[in-house]
Amino acid sequence: MKVVALSGGVGGARLVDGLAASLDSDELSVVVNTGDDFRHCGLWICPDLDTVMYTLSGRAPIDRGWGLAEETDACMNALKRLGGPSWFHLSDQDLATHLLRAKGLDEGLNLSQVTDLLFDAHGLKTQVYPMCDAPHPTRLLCDGAEMEFQQWFVANQAEPEVQAVCFPELGVASTAAVRAVDEADLIIITPSNPYLSIDPILSLPALNEALENRKGACIAISPIVAGRAIKGPLGKLIPALATRPASAAAVVAHYGDLVDGWVVERGDEAGFKGPVLKTDTVMKSRGDRKTLGRAVLDWAQPLL
Amino acid sequence: MKVVALSGGVGGARLVDGLAASLDSDELSVVVNTGDDFRHCGLWICPDLDTVMYTLSGRAPIDRGWGLAEETDACMNALKRLGGPSWFHLSDQDLATHLLRAKGLDEGLNLSQVTDLLFDAHGLKTQVYPMCDAPHPTRLLCDGAEMEFQQWFVANQAEPEVQAVCFPELGVASTAAVRAVDEADLIIITPSNPYLSIDPILSLPALNEALENRKGACIAISPIVAGRAIKGPLGKLIPALATRPASAAAVVAHYGDLVDGWVVERGDEAGFKGPVLKTDTVMKSRGDRKTLGRAVLDWAQPLL
């Protein structure tokens, strides 16, 4: 069975970790959002790719959505003492990832090639593809002006109200990502933020077309738990962007025909249509992730 | 009195530290070699500027020619574990300097502006100017092929025999550096390597012309101690490049008419012509540097 997961950061990465526990490395591929990527202090930072990488390595923190669990901040503290930018955290071992990525890009590799190299360096065999190689930055329309994603999300702690999510510079979907979707028997939309993590992937014409023409079934894990967005800024984004409450109905309407079946938190099934798996979707431990991954794969079999 | 020092890394930086102890910040300016600068993992590394900065901050190690005395290597160790480049050492706090420089360059500042910003961030008031803003890389002809400076110096530990030092991409001397030389009452060639640290500065046409047309006196501190090059690869370079032994005579011949007076190690005065100050030129402690700086300035007074 060929499975492809569409993923952003934390929630997506944890489900991917659960799926990887049940699938061989040639059965699973992951298409990762790169809309959050940005240049910082000479380095090219790919937050979602790194979160997937650190999560699959078992080195991501449980209680934090970025970086490594066991880390030091000698560089960051020195940068702060020098009056350097402190709004985006660069810890010491995490910096090694960014330096190695910068080296690869300097040498003319594209982001897909550098991602291969980094996952390989981290000892990971899962096939992980950036959604595109060229920048395709997510920008947010706030108070009538476009704001860079990290400026909104990190520097301003996702506080400015968002009127629209936009993709002003269109990238081209990476060949490997499109092929993975084309060949997939099962496409899994992870519980990452639909607007900020999945929409950037869907905004790439070739990937969108591949998803519309899919031979495989497409299922989604709902990010709604106990009637609310499970985490992050989604709770505020749904009312702002979908002009309805953060609810099952809003998420169902958002993905529309793309989704052939839903995995939803037990008790949140009202409002979801078609085949629905009711289960525990909140993943804390690696055990939770493995259990959910296995449950999703088993449940999806009859849909194929 | 306006004094300008021409400096490379360690030896030059230590004398500059000694001069700074005796001069007000508006009396001393320093023109620093940037021929060793290079791009590494997305960052622009300026070894001599950083050595001058760390030495003036009192944070440079006594027993090592680069980096900071009190440092950690969390990032470098992680980079090695990932199979990243280990030939050039990037320690944690030192990285903060490189990140802040990269940020400034990304924002469109030139190297002079970024250098101002970095020295200011380190709390230093001495006026330090990169010899030029654009790259002006030193390359070494070894076995008939051009080698990048850091490849030769660090990666190959200065072992390949050098047939010639070349400057294949001519930069333009920075305005501030030229003005400092124009206005100087006293120009001091520090005991940095004549071929690798001072010649790159002299290779810039506008700086060379300013030095030839100097209104001030130009003195040099000889890097020869006990008949040999005091440190680094100079001992091998003089015989190779000047086709004579590493001696006073070789250094005197190398600088020629540029030097109006010499500061030489006591006992090494044979071969030096014109006004000569015989003293202890080896600087270990900050006290040594201050003593030598003071002695040089006092001795130079009658030459002005």
On the 0 to 100 scale, the average pLDDT of chain A is 94
Q: Kindly report the greatest chain-chain contact and the residue count on each side.
A: A-B, 34 and 34 residues
Q: Find the count of extended strands of chain A (DSSP E, 2+ residues).
A: 14
Taking Cα atoms only, what radius of gyration of chain A do you get, to the nearest Å?
18 Å
Oligomer: homodimer
Notes on the structure:
With 304 residues, chain A is an alpha/beta fold. The first copy, chain A, contains twelve helices and 14 strands. In chain A, helix 7 (175-183) runs parallel beside helix 9. Chains A and B meet through helix 3 and helix 4 of A and helix 3 and helix 4 of B.
Strand-helix topology:
Two copies of one chain form a homodimer.
Chain A lengths: L2 E5 L2 H13 L5 E5 L5 E3 L2 E3 L1 H10 L17 H8 L10 H15 L4 H11 L5 E4 L8 E4 L2 E4 H7 L8 E3 L8 H9 L2 E4 L4 H9 L2 H8 L4 E5 L2 E2 L2 E2 L4 H9 L5 H8 L5 E5 L10 E4 L6 H15 L4
Parallel strand pairs in A: 1-2, 1-9, 2-5, 9-10, 10-13, 13-14
Antiparallel strand pairs in A: 3-4, 6-7, 6-8, 11-12
Helix pairs in contact in A: 1-2, 1-12, 4-5, 7-9
Notable features of this structure?
homodimer; 304 residues; alpha/beta; Rossmann fold; seven-stranded parallel sheet; three-stranded antiparallel sheet; 12 helices
